[in-house]
Design brief:
This protein is an all-beta fold. Helices cover 0% and strands 38% of the residues. It has a single domain, classed as Sandwich (Jelly Rolls). Strand 2 and strand 3 form a beta hairpin.
Length: 156
């Protein structure tokens, strides 16, 4: 747990800087280790997405799912909004990516979005703690999408 750092003022959001180990063969970065994950966060799947330059994903939030994002390439602005009942409103923007590689845990009820602010396609890894659409992809999608709502207060 020593390597997990609360770089966010939003409760439950965890941002951990990733370390890069280089030698004559190339480099290696540990994304996460079970023995170092915060209690209660247990990823159940993983995927890679490519975001084109200038493109944003979100803002959206999850009802039950926590996301475990890894930003290793490109240059992104990560936007976070507190939206849980009983919590104080907060909004944060973090610059993440190749120059600042991080593992970020976003809990349910925290609205999140990211935009590729670099000049090239960039990769994002995600290790959520819920299966997309549940076992066998039979359940409704666990997200509330705000990006198409013109009345939404969550804007990039």
């Amino acid at each position: 747990m020593d390597r997990w750092k609360e770089a966010s003022k939003i409760p439950g959001v965890v941002i951990r800087a990733l370390q890069r180990y280089e030698d004559h063969r190339g480099w290696l970065t540990e994304l996460f280790r079970e023995d170092e994950l915060p209690e209660g966060f247990e990823p159940v799947m993983g995927y890679l997405s490519v975001t084109h330059a200038g493109v944003a994903r979100g803002p959206h939030e999850h009802v039950e799912q926590s996301d475990g994002f890894v930003f290793l390439s490109g240059e992104f602005e990560l936007h976070l909004w507190e939206n849980r009942p009983g919590h104080q409103d907060a909004y944060e923007v973090h610059r993440v990516g190749e120059a600042a590689p991080v593992f970020v845990i976003v809990p349910p009820g925290v609205v999140h979005a990211y935009r590729n602010v670099g000049q090239e396609d960039a990769f994002v890894l995600n290790f959520p703690d819920r299966l997309y659409r549940g076992p066998g992809k039979q359940d409704p999608v666990d997200e509330i999408r705000h990006e198409d709502d013109v009345q939404s207060r969550f804007k990039l």
